[in-house]
Design goal:
The structure holds 2 protein chains of 2 kinds. By secondary structure, chain A is of the alpha/beta class. Chain A contains 5 helices and 5 strands. The longest helix of chain B is centred in the first third of the chain and has 22 residues.
């Protein structure tokens, strides 16, 4: 008797539950905008990388002493590794790649790539020593331009968590040093803070 | 009676969860409320609801080292916190977008009635115009 009275409600509940289960089980793949705000997890993500790169590039290109130097010429810079002092595995080379790419495309600086020294050396040796390359077209050894500035920095984090809340604070510090004098010509920081709270349903 | 109440609640929660899921979809876009004629040419309102909550003002620009530097103020017109995201786009003298897609959306949380300045620097010296897009999170 009780079942009979409740049968429409039971049916509705079953349909609703089935829809929820179907929704939960379905997979959907879609392309997204690469520059969209990404909050899939609290870990270091693409939005953090883009925010850091934008802040650092804007800052270095508008810093008055750097503006004075780049007004007259395009100095050569090399990018040292960014030290990852966080507990996460973060590809810091990807951050410096984005920063150096933007600075290069601004037309204000030129870069030398220290990760390709061996390959360049091998190629120069091949062109000049192997006897297989026309000497008139071979790139000459000893004519590379030395870097005037070095870019380097670090990424650190402070993580705090309770049962329901996790708080992550990132600090990215970047510096530009004049290699000959050892003077730091520019430095800036970008801070990012993110929190994750457990939702009401524990999901 | 208890069984019926239980089922009613289950259905209610299911419908509510579905509605909440639907409401969390992003994609709305607003570009503030024009303050004057000078600003108007830069601002387009795509979302009236958001434009009533967030406004863009104090649009300033200058040239630094041959690059266009801009500063704008985002103001929360409500008394509650608002999470928005903004992005700059840059255009040359021929209205071609420069370094399209290189600037990402930057999230910003505005407390009730809070104002914050957002800065942008053009990617290179060919930029003559810019656009700031603001959307709800």
């Amino acid at each position: 008797m009780l079942m009979k009275r409740n049968s429409p409600i039971v049916g509705l509940a079953l349909v609703a539950a089935s829809l929820l289960i179907l929704q939960a089980c379905s997979n959907k793949v879609a392309y997204q905008e690469a520059t969209e705000v990404e909050t899939t997890t609290i870990d270091f993500g693409s939005t953090d990388l883009q925010q850091i790169a934008a802040k650092m590039v804007d800052s270095v290109l508008t810093f008055p002493p750097i503006v004075r130097v780049t007004d007259e010429r395009r100095p050569v810079m090399f990018v040292d590794k960014i030290k990852n002092k966080t507990t996460e595995h973060i590809d810091t080379e990807s951050i410096t790649d984005t920063i150096s790419n933007r600075i290069l495309r601004s037309g204000k600086f030129r870069f030398v790539d220290m990760t390709k020294v061996k390959e360049v050396s091998d190629q120069l040796n091949f062109q000049n020593e192997s006897g297989m390359v026309n000497r008139n077209t071979a790139a000459q050894v000893g004519r590379q331009i030395g870097a005037e500035f070095m870019m380097y920095g670090n990424l650190s984090s402070i993580v705090k968590k309770t049962k329901d809340v996790k708080d992550v604070y990132y600090k990215f510090t970047l510096k530009v040093m004049h290699l000959e004098s050892g003077i730091i010509e520019w430095s800036d920081e970008k801070e990012i803070r993110k929190t994750r709270e457990k939702s009401m349903f524990g999901m | 009676m208890k069984v019926r109440d239980c089922f009613k609640r289950l259905v209610g929660v299911s419908v509510l969860a579905g509605l909440l899921g639907a409401c969390s979809t992003s994609g709305i876009e607003a570009i503030g409320t024009p303050d004057d004629d000078k600003v108007k040419k830069h601002l387009l309102i795509h979302n009236d609801a958001l434009a009533k909550k967030i406004t863009i003002s104090d649009m300033r620009s200058r040239e630094v080292g041959g690059l266009l530097e801009v500063s704008l103020t985002l103001r929360n017109l409500t008394s509650s916190d608002k999470a928005v995201a903004y992005r700059f786009s840059w255009f040359d003298a021929d209205e071609f977008e420069v370094e399209a897609g290189s600037d990402g959306w930057t999230p910003v949380n505005l407390h009730g009635a809070q104002s914050t300045a957002v800065h942008g620097v053009a990617p290179n010296g060919t930029v003559k115009n810019y656009r700031l897009n603001v959307k709800g999170q």
